[in-house]
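Box S1 | Example of a co-folding query
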Amino acid sequence: MKIHKLALTSALYASASTVSCSQTINVSNEISLGDSIAQFVSGASGLDGPKMDPEINATSFDWWYFDAVSENNSCAVVIVFYMTTDLGFPFVLPLSTLSVDIFATFEDGTLVFLPLNDLPLSAGTAKVVTDGDGSSGIWEGTGFEWKGAPDLSQYVVTIDSPLLGITGTLSLNSVAPAHYPCGSNQADQNLEVSPHVGWANAVPDANAIADFTVLGRKLQFTGPGYHDKNWGDQPFTENVASWYWGHGRLGPYSIVWFDVLALDGSEYVSSYAAVNGSIITASCSGIKVRPMGKNSQYPPVIASGNPQGFHIDLDLGSEGILEVNVTSNVTLADAILYTRWSGTMSGGVKGGIVYTGVALYEEFKFKL
Ligand SMILES: *[C@@H]1O[C@H](CO)[C@@H](O)[C@H](O)[C@H]1NC(C)=O
Ligand SMILES: *[C@@H]1O[C@H](CO)[C@@H](O)[C@H](O)[C@H]1NC(C)=O
Ligand SMILES: *[C@@H]1O[C@H](CO)[C@@H](O)[C@H](O)[C@H]1NC(C)=O
Ligand SMILES: *[C@@H]1O[C@H](CO)[C@@H](O)[C@H](O)[C@H]1NC(C)=O
Ligand SMILES: *[C@@H]1O[C@H](CO)[C@@H](O)[C@H](O)[C@H]1NC(C)=O
Ligand SMILES: *[C@@H]1O[C@H](CO)[C@@H](O)[C@H](O)[C@H]1NC(C)=O
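Box S1 (continued) | Returned holo structure for 2-acetamido-2-deoxy-beta-D-glucopyranose
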């Protein structure tokens, strides 16, 4: 596994000599030529900051992801800010380097999916400011932006897009500490959740308030929310054959799961559980996620179809193994190679209390 330290360029630290420790990068809607180096070892701060230097070449990617699901799992919103071409990550609009997505799911099951390029005609740029561990970003020309607190306690995503017919905010008040693939938020942590794929989970669980108007319809709910970012220095599909990821709240537990298969069949995992604002486990071992019920072929291939749900065994250390069934209810996005759901969770430590809760989760499958 190749590990690169981030080359700290003067551009990245341009404002470091002025106020506090905030750093600003401006990224134009152009592809950088040459190497774009990934940060795969954590620094003392900047958990949610940009991780490719420079942002971005034709085959690298760096994105910021936000979501929330309603307490009864029927409504959801997912918003993503991308710095990538479709060579880096195949699900963005062709010819874009800067783009955004919103997926809004209404109570009656209606899904609105709207992608938008950072308008080339407006010579759009993206600006990301890193302050402490938090970040704030503006994708100029789209009307999409987010603001994060330096201590990661709060995030607000704001959309004001007359072009898409969307206005509103997603507010996240964190209830679970940030972490990296193999441990808590501290310096010198490994940042690769699987080879060449970086992951930093700024907000593993939050009390979310979604308040949007989408194409004239209100989308308003409260429920668990989440924010993370991924990045990589090689095309996503050159390193990922399939992956299961998700998060949710089960009784007192905030949990996040990752179970990835590389192209050579190697499995990489990350497990996270917190209770009452304290981490019980944050590790790149101690978890197994498998499809459950109908279409539960493992490893999954493109033709497998969508499983009914997932079974998760998550090692809580001295507290035992948390055994969770996740059952899909609403399909929030479906592109065959990629599916996202909301659903219910049921489980607990064997022999203990059985809790229920809601989850938002996804599957990629690229293998024929
Ligand atoms: C980024 O762009 C803003 C104007 O939008 C400018 O004030 C700032 O100096 C630029 N920062 C860097 C690091 O280029
Ligand atoms: C992007 O940068 C990576 C190094 O991090 C390099 O391996 C890759 O070849 C570059 N891509 C292009 C198209 O230059
Ligand atoms: C599934 O979602 C529907 C709305 O699409 C909701 O009415 C129903 O309560 C949900 N069922 C379960 C079991 O969560
Ligand atoms: C589910 O939650 C949404 C948002 O709070 C609400 O509009 C809807 O009425 C709820 N549905 C049920 C079946 O409780
Ligand atoms: C969480 O904290 C509350 C209040 O401090 C306490 O009553 C409760 O037992 C805690 N729950 C767990 C699972 O530790
Ligand atoms: C999880 O699903 C399995 C298989 O259907 C079932 O045997 C088990 O009782 C379920 N556990 C919980 C906690 O729902």
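Residues 252, 275-276 surround 2-acetamido-2-deoxy-beta-D-glucopyranose (ligand 5) (CB under 6 Å). The chain has a mean pLDDT of 92.
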